[in-house]
Amino acid sequence: MFFRTLWAVLGAATLFVVSSHAQPGKIDADGLTLAELQRMMPEYFHLGGGSGRVGRLAIPDVFGPGAVLDVGNIHMKVTNAGHFGNAFPNLSSDPAGQWRGASAIEYLSSVRLAVGGVNPTSTNPAAVRRVSFYTEWRPPTLDPEDRMYRAYDGIVNGTRFGNDDGDFDPPGSCGVLSCPRIDEDFLDGRDNDGDGLIDEDHAAIGQKMYSCVMRDDTPQAINAVFNEKHVPLGLEVRQKAWAYSISGFQDFNVVEYEVFNRSGHPLDSVYVGWFVDMDAGPAELTNYFSDDFDVPYFPSGEFVLEVGSQPGNNPDAARRQSPHSPTLNQTVAPDSALCPRQVLRINGFSVADDNGDENRTPGLPSVLLINHTVDPLGETGPRRVGFRAFRSFIQGTPFPQGGNPVVDQQRYEFMSGHDNINQETGFIEMAPGDQKGDYIQWASVGPWRNLEDGKSISVTIAFAVKEGSYTAAQQYPDDYARYQNGSMSGGDLLALYPVLANALTAQIAYEGVHEFRQGFITPDFHGRETPRIIPRLSPVVYLADCRDAEFGATRPVFDNQYSWFDFDCDYCTGVWDFDRGESDPSAGGMFHKTWNAAAPPPNPLINTAAAYNYSDNKDRVAAPGQDNAIVLAWDNLSEVTPDPKTTWFDFRGYKVWKVSDWLRPVGAGGPSEDDWTLVGEFRLFDHKTSNRYFDVAAGDTTCPTVFIPSYTNPVTGTTDSATVKICLDKGDLWNRQTGEILKPDRSLDCVTNETGACVEVRGCNIGAADCTDPGNQQVRTRYPIGRYRWVDHEVKNGFTYFYSVTAFDSTDELGHTIELNGRRSAVEAEGVVPQSATKTGKGVWVVPNPYRGYARIAERPSSWDLTPNASDPTGTHVDFLGLPTGQWTIRIYTVSGDLVEILKSTDPVNESLRPSSTQSDGSVQTSFNRQQDTANDGQARWNLISRNGQDIVSGIYMFTVESSEGTQRGRFVVIR
User: Fold this and answer.
1) Which residues pair with 823 in a beta bridge?
2) Which terminal residue of the chain has fewer beta carbons within 10 Å of its beta carbon, N or C?
């Protein structure tokens, strides 16, 4: 027998038996197997090719490769089917929640969304209280538009809290004046505001963001039956998930849900909840998820922070409200700060590995509740941000014993209860489990009463990982008590618990700053956080807040303007500037800008990206894989993106990073942080004429003599330090270390918009104090991939390499000039391979020959072999080199003449790694590389799998190559 079965190599992951998880022993808490998944979601599976293997369509981005946040220290997958993480690791090598970077050390399996509510109009008792959970959330349609959308802070049309398109609501819609329509068009490929434009004014955040829309009432969701019949509530969720690359913000990823009632009638007692499965350990270890402990109370607590008196000490010094109105009936002097301190609440829970896996698992993962819609009066929603119910249990625990709810009745019972929440403090008070295992958590927030049709609530959580251990976390309650009674300082507490410090950083990041900003209604006095207005033509009503009650007074609420009230009795939640508001109260109100953070320029788009580097991409002008070379090309996106805080064009340059010798460790979805090597730093030449070296007057080029530390002589090829002339034009990129100059390709046309005009972006000159002055503004034009090109000759044909081009700027933080850098990252689908050139009239040969398939990869002479995974179950290949030009067909035979496999020049190479791409015209395009990727590609690979799906055995194999040049023959040897 010439073949041995692939069962041992591929396992259940490729043969698609009932397990939905790649890890042995891992059982889905909801009982969802792959067979159940295929039955529930048949529209997302199809039979492809002659092998009958299951393939995946582009929508939803669940199975992979999908949307991965990878600009921070946490690499986390996001989907548009009711969960984030990777619940199906046998279908995708995407990280669920790895830290730091693509480390193959997992801290997450899956976080699943649940929204429950009461339908007061239902006449069917079974439909009154329902919960929409997990895969009952689907994209609104199967159209290509309903997919994951990627953006970043500073993207065109994505300015947060800004009126990108300059439109206004009708007069009287928000009082006497017309209000600007700000961030009204959610990023989802749809015209949400009915103005004929798509995504023209959305709000992007973070250095990488994915947005999507999900509904619980699609035909696919209604037809899916899992444990019970799904009864939708008529809800829509607009989900945003983002990550930061800036220092201090890299260890938490944020997920925001805006839940809309689309049912056509009110919903009562609405709750939002999550099933959380955090698993801590190296993905290569069997049952790494089974030795965890839960830490339900950590991190949580109430913390007092000083608010800085100077902007240089605290970006939100306005929160102090100093001075303040002398009319306040309190003991604080008018010339003192009204709010010198700020109280922040941390709501979170964690899971920890029992012993850190010999320092391989140094982190401790947490889920943090950052914010949700509140009602200070407690009439329509919770008074403060906090969990409603919580439980933690080992997988397999029945619901009555505090375990997993498996049907809607149980889910709603839990979500509406008060399990393990201290009703006085609002914090989780559950004790940790006494045995290690695979821990699951459930948490809920709410309720929101009488949620009218078309109205929404918002909930924001974060997944965070930071250094920590189970042993240390056990001491937290005692140390927190010491902090509360004053025997431990806040600084000492944070130093002991990096997990807590990280959670506090995330909460402070959300709190942001208060600033004067046009287009928003703002408080008209200290502490008035709640605006009230009545419907048009309604009679005036009178309300009183706690300050009015001190004087036994009420104030009117009209139909043509907002009246502001201090319903939470806290002067610090409605920030008002006394100096500006003394003469005009409406002028003193300050807008609360959440998530206020500096940002480096977005990294440019490069030609190694999976969405660009595929054979059928007609717009691909720079294919990276060449003969013994990789051509790396990128666009000028970084240069035309103003800083979102200052609107300055503060871009400074690019850094080029490379990964070689990657062996794909078990569980790794791409190179880790330590794999990257800096191979070049190129700074933009855009100096002013006052620069002592260069003169950039129009048409002027000067060639000053500059010391270059690593200059390569173009004649001799030797590299040494030298003093040489450097000739630069404005717009050039140059490497100060090597003297290498990259000139922009000015022959490329600009990127155009839907009208055919060049995309132009207006920004401000760096350092300008007044960016509203037209004299301080400039316009920059957007150019496509290929604007810059850099060639790497330090590569070998047939080997996989990764590249990342990051952008950096310089900015002022607290009076110091610092450099902000983009994050280097890549996933396996972005690996590129140099290819031997085509040959004419010469024989085709096989490399390596003989092929020695030793068990240990390190012992194989074919050093390009990778560790097998779900998408590449053998991890190995032999390559045919010297293939002729034009189309060809390779047939491989045994020495007895049995046909083993047929390879064609049009066959896909990396189809299992590449999702389909949605084109600008809305069509869906396959995005894999073919065997013949370019006209000069004379190399093809074979993974040693026969056409019958079997792994070949040792022997001598014959092959023929048929092309327009005739037939060529050869042989090679395989040794197992």
Assistant:
1) none
2) N
